[in-house]
């Protein structure tokens, strides 16, 4: 529904490549509402929990190391089907498999430098939002254009 929320993060490579504005712009332009945003150096402990489901994959340790190599822009976005649509906007896991006009398709070539994270289900969105944010960091506010985005 309209109140669906997802966790989106610009990864350290995306921050270094100055893609923060571009990524925020795409979600704003699409009509989604920004609910939370912060620049953070994530601890390995948090990242290990964030990627817990991948703990048996050969790239897990390096993934956690890469994700802690610089600041991340952590965000919560809200809107109609934002989880699924956010994943479409991102593209595939590997930038080389991603279509042009997707965030990954337009901004990279390698899977370890894919610029953005986005929750992939309602369950993971809930889990990730509560892992990265305190309840008090989430803002409820009215967007003045709501009636022109939703009928
Ligand atoms: P996604 O980020 O598209 O949800 P995922 O959850 O399967 O993909 O994996 C999390 C991250 O792990 C992904 O963004 C980049 C990294 N990764 C995935 N597959 C990889 C691989 N084969 N080699 C190296 N890193 C990989
Ligand atoms: Mg994933």
Please provide a written account of the structure:
- The chain starts with a strand and ends with a helix.
- It is built from eight helices and four strands, in the order E-H-H-E-H-H-E-H-H-E-H-H.
- Helices cover 39% and strands 16% of the residues.
- The longest helix has 11 residues, at 20-30.
- Strands 2-3-1-4 form a four-stranded antiparallel β-sheet.
- It is an alpha+beta fold and 151 residues long.
- It is globular and about 45 Å long.
- The chain binds 2'-deoxyadenosine-5'-diphosphate and magnesium ion (MG).
Q: Tell me the strand percentage band.
A: 15-25%
**Strand order across the biggest sheet?**
2-3-1-4
Average residue-wise pLDDT: 98
Radius of gyration: 15 Å
Q: Roughly how many Å apart are the termini?
A: 13 Å
Secondary-structure blueprint of this entry?
Layout: E1 5-10, H1 12-16, H2 20-30, E2 33-40, H3 44-50, H4 60-67, E3 72-78, H5 82-90, H6 103-106, E4 116-118, H7 122-132, H8 146-149
Antiparallel strand pairs: 1-3, 1-4, 2-3
The protein binds 2'-deoxyadenosine-5'-diphosphate and magnesium ion.
GO molecular function: ATP binding; metal ion binding; nucleoside diphosphate kinase activity
Cofactor: Mg(2+)
Domain Nucleoside diphosphate kinase-like: 3-140
Task: Write a compact overview of the structure shown.
This protein is of the alpha+beta class and 151 residues long. Helices cover 39% and strands 16% of the residues. 2'-deoxyadenosine-5'-diphosphate (DAT) binds next to loops.
């Amino acid at each position: 529904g309209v109140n669906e929320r997802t966790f989106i993060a610009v990864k350290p490579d995306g921050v270094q490549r100055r893609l923060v504005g571009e990524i925020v712009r795409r979600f704003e332009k699409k009509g989604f509402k920004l609910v939370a945003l912060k620049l953070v150096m994530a601890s390995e402990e948090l990242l290990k929990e964030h990627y817990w489901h991948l703990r048996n994959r050969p790239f897990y340790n390096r993934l956690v190391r890469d994700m802690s190599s610089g600041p991340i822009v952590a965000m919560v976005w809200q809107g109609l089907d934002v989880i699924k649509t956010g994943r479409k906007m991102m593209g595939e896991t590997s930038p080389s498999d991603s279509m042009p006009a997707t965030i990954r398709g337009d901004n990279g070539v390698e899977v370890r430098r894919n610029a953005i994270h986005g929750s992939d289900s309602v369950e993971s969105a809930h889990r990730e939002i509560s892992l990265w944010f305190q309840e008090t960091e989430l803002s409820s506010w009215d967007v003045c254009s709501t009636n022109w985005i939703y009928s």
